[in-house]
What we know:
Elements: H1 4-28, H2 32-56, H3 60-74, H4 84-109, H5 118-129, E1 135-140, E2 148-155, E3 158-164, H6 182-185, E4 189-191, E5 196-202, H7 210-223, E6 233-236
Antiparallel strand pairs: 1-2, 1-6, 2-3, 3-5, 4-5
Helix pairs in contact: 1-2, 3-4
Amino acid sequence: xxxxxDLVIAALEAxxxxxxxxxxxxxxxxxxxxxxxxxxxxxxxxSRLNKLYTFKDPLHNRRQELKRQERSLKxxxxxxxxxxxxxxxxxxxxxxxxxxxKLDLESQSQKKVIFNDxxxxxxxxxxxxxxxxxxxxxxxxxYDDDDVQIIFKTDNDFLLICINMFDPEEPDFxxxxxxxxxxxxxxxxxxxxxxxxxxxxxxxxxxxxxxxKILLSRLFFxxxxxxxxxxxxxxxxxxx
Length: 240
């Protein structure tokens, strides 16, 4: 059974193929204004897809870049096709470097367990609501100094979502000029005792994990800005 994320990606990929087909037909018909509008729509769609693929696999862009490099090395330019020895001379070092980069990428992806399954977060939230576990943590980032720690735990009838990273004296310095008070805008308040920004979710209203997952999505995309290579999301459980 596909996760919610996989279903969204599949639907957008189908839409992408449809737009590409319409663009091809418009070019045959010499309707370049329609081609222009379709290309604009395609660029926006590909941007959304890239964010979703990166959310599923934070190393997606790097993997794609290495695949492009591998394809280019397998197909020599026309002026090298009659002299494969010369082409081999130029590409041997690049091929070795490509192999090393692929090994480094796989090693990097194994440094943390990447959270890429929406069902996993559902299960953990239901477990914590049912008091089967005390708490769990999501870590955003690959470098220890830059990690954003999101801790889930209960306090009586409330689920607390705590973010540890920010200086209480200047809580929004990271996002200055881009988003005004992003955490406060999502409902987080700074708790001096916990030294964290805390969001309180009333468990009396809990039916499923949808609202909490939407909140997490807004944190990842709107606040922390998942967009590039090297941004890993890992789940730590059990949390001591």
